[in-house]
């Protein structure tokens, strides 16, 4: 909210903080940085990357086998 221009005092009221210092401590972590950490550490993202890599390797292997079969004159 802060990055989108919402006044820090409004955020303070929403969070129920009596001191603005408490609110500013919590707002020091920017959404951009938080998103970057999430992207680097998200287990689902790592699993998707591994699946893409595995699919790419499988496709490459199948293409290689097809090429070998064509050279040998055998049907795949």
Structural class by SSE content? mainly alpha
Q: Could you tell me the strand content as a percent range?
A: under 5%
Sheet with the most strands?
A: none
CA radius of gyration is 26 Å
The helical percent reads over 70%
- Average the pLDDT over all residues and give the rounded result: 77
How many helices does DSSP assign?
Answer: 4
Shape: rod-shaped
DSSP strand count: 0
The rounded distance between the terminal residues' Cα atoms is 58 Å
What is the H-and-E element order?
Answer: HHHH
Low-confidence runs of at least 5 consecutive residues:
none
Write the layout of secondary structure elements.
Elements: H1 8-15, H2 20-26, H3 31-41, H4 43-72
Helix pairs in contact: 1-2
Report a brief summary of the structure.
The protein contains 4 helices and no strands. It is mostly helical and 76 residues long.
Structure description:
The structure is a single chain. With 76 residues, this protein is mostly helical. It is 74% helix and 0% strand. It has helices at 8-15, 20-26, 31-41, 43-72. α1 packs across α2. It starts with 7 loop residues before the first helix and ends with a helix. The model has no long low-confidence stretch (mean pLDDT 77).
